# Entry
Amino acid sequence: MPNTLAHIGAQGLASRAFMTKAHLKWIYLGCIIPDIPWIINRIVRFADLGVNLYDLRLYSIVQSSLFFA
# Structure
């Protein structure tokens, strides 16, 4: 699972340096969106809903890559 806090720290500082008028809420949202499938993956695994873990992992990989497409 990607480290969301590291994404927020690194991308937040880099984005703020190049786009001084950008609001932080939009920068942070851009950091969290690619991590949403991995967060959902963790929640489903913790809840033990009987989902095939291999399929869940593949679903998370595809969904996180589609956010960038």
